[in-house]
Amino acid sequence: MAFRFFVCAALAAAATGPAWGQPQDAAAPDAATDAAPAQTVTVTGRGTPGATIGGFGDVPLARAPFAATVIGPQSLADAGVTNLADIARTTAGVSDGYNALGYWSNFTVRGFVLDPRNNYRRDGLPINAETALWLGNVGRIEVLRGTSGMQAGISAPGGLVNLVVKRPVGPLRSATLGVEQRGSVLLGLDVGDRAGAGGEFGWRISAEHERLDPLLRDARGSRHGVAAAGEWRLGDGARLEGEVALNRQSQPSQAGYSLLGTRVPDAREVDPRINLNDQPWALPVVFGGTTGSLRWTQPLAPTLQFVAHAMAQRLRTDDRMAFPFGCSAENSFDRYCSDGSFDVYDYRSDGERRRNDAVDLGLRGSTRVLAQEHRWQAGVQWSRRRAALPDQAYNYVGTGTVDGSRVTPADPTPIAGTGSARNERSTELYLRDEWALTPAASLWLGLRHTRLQRSDSSSQIDASQRFTTPWLAASLRLDARTTVYASAGEGVESTVVPNLPAVYAHAGQPLPALKSRQLEAGIKHEAGALSASAALFDVRRPLFSDLCGVLCERVLDGQQRHRGIELDATWRALAWTLHAGATALRARRERSIDPAHDALKPTNVPERTLRAQLDHQVGALPGLTLTAGVQHEGSRYALPDNTAAIPSWTRLDLAARFVQRIGPADTTLTWRLGVDNATNRRAWREAPYQFGHAYLYPLAPRSWRASVQAAF
Q1: For the chain, which residues make up each domain, given as ranges?
Q2: pTM of the model
Q3: 615 CB-side CA count, 13 A
């Protein structure tokens, strides 16, 4: 369907508000959903929450001039979200971007793959997502859609993901037992309280242990984590908060399928439970992490506040796989052989260590100038990122087959010189201002200046870059229920030439910063039973390509342009609630050195995504809610030249939640039952093109899950 049609549809929709992934429970405080889930949900006024990742504090999303989604704790539990990859099935416009079971999560937002080193935040500070991020101590997940140069000095243009940590909320006693079809079992505990004459001391402990036994064969593992958070209210509004979390996950990762010669195999003929990473010598991928933060909030005046926030993250990874890659028998290294065989490599990278540290010092205030109010924030953020990567093994050991039956020998010998020690330091100065021109009209301004220093022992890099990323928006409240806005902003990516001297000229050297630009316009409407939104966006991102002779040279080669529309709505009527979100995207290459590349579409990006969920509160049995959810994603290309694609797919999920109050102590039991992929649909879920190779990942087969949460 033509892009022009969607522009007209957006202008006619006159809508905004929370997406399906931002349900009514997200508007409630953390305590309300964690301590004792209510049997009914009552929504009054315009109580949509703010997304702190937007950079303007507690501004409600209903009037914020950007697109964001907030997924609250009840929605996370109802959808059975236990790892970050699961949020791709709750939010339209967010899609899988090489999400292999047992590995770290990757997403595309507005068609751009998020960078795991730069596009993820924890309570607003940067973290490294090259690990299995534990969600046991996460209260909600925020997804910002669009360029994020105002919020992050360096980031891919799709958006940001922010994990908001659980904090002390008062008396809380909650225990959870969950099971899944084949034998996965989860035990969880969440307890907290306040102490002191005025409740000035607060504490909270979250812990989980999970035995992992998915339907994917030979992928058994375990995951556990424990976290503690404390708060000390010092008086006069001052507050000191601290938290720490430790987690570990061990599980074999999932190897992808691929094209068989020139043919995309029919997903209906492939058993999605087969794991091609099943060799006698295959070892699990092990992720271990320790993350902690300290935050001090100090009022300096009635309208002025100082916040100091520091965070440290320590990661250790053993990355191992019987890695299928290419077909040397047919001289095709981006796919498998026509007969279903493929080359197998013994890949091992044991003892990877990554460290992230960040400190943010900021002032927040409100100032009146010429009868106009300015709500502003200004500050400086320092961050340091280190990675110590050992010599890796990547050795050819024979051939495998797509039925998973062929056995190969092991060869774990490390290859000398493949390790490296990388260091990055950045200093970022930022300023944000919400300028109320009139009671109905506002200007929103953001500016971030970044200085980046990078070094790498393997390529002898020692370089620095500076760049400034502005953002400007204007919003107008047409009435108490409707807001329109328009914005323009920039984002920056920084990269280097691959450190392969035998292949690339200037190997390992920094490349010019890629500055992406975005225009966005939207309308938001919220009126009690109906909240809806529409946003139009146009993102332009420069591209690098390789021109190869004796050596390859990486050069600027035109741009990627992504234009689209996002529609979201929530409608409530008596016992019925409908959440729906849809994205239509037109992504193309433009201005390429070779005109034949113009109009090509990026790989693994669907042009249409739909998420819809219908909830019904059963009047005959108070406390029971039945849910039906639909996910749809359009076709997507598997190869950069657009010669192979996977079909669209639609999946149906069913679920039920029953809230039961028992005993004189008012204990609340929340029973949950879900059937994912209820029709057992066979399809290729995604087609990531990674490391110069086209992979295919199937939809997981039908499975059920059940849990009970006791709050007392």
Answers
A1: 3-711
A2: 0.91
A3: 25
